[in-house]
Amino acid sequence: GKSILIDDDLSVIGSFNMAWTDFFSVIGNINLLICVLTILICSTIFSNDTSKNVNQILLITKLGRNKMIFAKIIVGTVIPLCTLILFHLLNAGIFSLMYDTSGWNSSIQTNLSMGLFQFPVEWNHLQTYLIVVLLQSIGIVFVSSFTLLISSFAKSPITSLSVSLGMFLLPQLLLQIFRKGILNKLLYFFPINNLNAQKTLETEPREAF
Hints:
9 helices, elongated
């Protein structure tokens, strides 16, 4: 009797462990999608005006160039953030319908599938998810900021897009070069390197906390 109960308990634990592992995997894909969409959108915001020589026209508009620039920066930042939140809400809704969400309040260290046994902070699955979303949000703001900056200097949308994608992927290349030390840890804060929530969590905290 006891062995059957233990087997049932292990089966339930294993079930929600795998469900949460899949969930964290999916939100990494969401982050990548939103980052790429952000670069595609923001890379044209200023460079498109430059390529069409409409900057001088903007100077005589009712709003003026400064207000137009401010409005474009707000749009380039707010829309990607809202899109990220919307995708997370949709994903969480689908996840709750397809899987058993029990175990949200269990420690992330008990998730055998993720293997975060040495994670130094007593976070449960929900807290870990919220931290990951926060990191992704900061990452989206960072991506939109440097893409808008590049777009403001580029003379064409293609140039802006190419340089922005290169800058986005650069930390991934640097991670292959700097495999140890503090620089390696810092590189995991760049959006391209924290797409894998599990890898990010098992790499950063050991020396960061």
